[in-house]
Amino acid sequence: MVASVSPTWLLCVVSMAAVTAAVSGCATTQDANKRIDARFDRTLSSRKPLDFTGSDPDVRVTDTAVVKGKEGSAIVVLLRNHGDHPVNDLPIEVGPRGGRPLNTEANVPYFQSHAPAIAPGEEVAWVYTTKEPLPSGAAFARVGARPAAAPTADNLPDVTVDDSSLTSGRDAGSVQTEVRNDSGVPQYDLDVYAVARRGGRYVAAGRTTLEHLGVSKSAHLTLSLLGDAKGAHVQVFAPPTLFE
Question: Angle CA(92)–CA(93)–CA(97) in degrees, nearest 5?
Fold first, then answer.
């Protein structure tokens, strides 16, 4: 006798197999499972209000700014890791100075409420975007301690940005760049941040998300910017999200 198989059950099995294959790359099953778990835990976390507790002793907020555009506003936060080890997945709450936090409620994209990976001694820019019109001036940013469920970054994979492709000043509303994954670790949910500085202040910023950047693969991106980047110095950051 041949047992019948539920179409729904079969679809679930096939879907899980596809996810496992996509995330694994050439890694071991154990590595693939860790990557699936990391994405799953982040998805669950983003569905809840931000769990902001403690602080990381090595991470400092070195600068903040509000950038305004026709389509909304952005908050730029410059973060420096003064420690001897990488940091990652740190909760971060931001808002206009004197106002309320904007990114602590449920259903905020994970990397709009958590800071990116930062190597020892490095400084990176993180960008929060909103359609709300925010008041001009400075912003506040507070960084918490890494959640226990977050992955630990002992070493950061080599994800690079091709600065030679930046189109600073050619189009005041966007910037083009290439992001390359030169590591052996596929990257998922990779947030890419762009900031433009002119005359000592931030004048434009933007972000986008790459759902997947495979091993030894590159992606050409056009980032829409809030503000006016004409004649400004543009920097793009693409901190890795998976570490093994």
Answer: 135
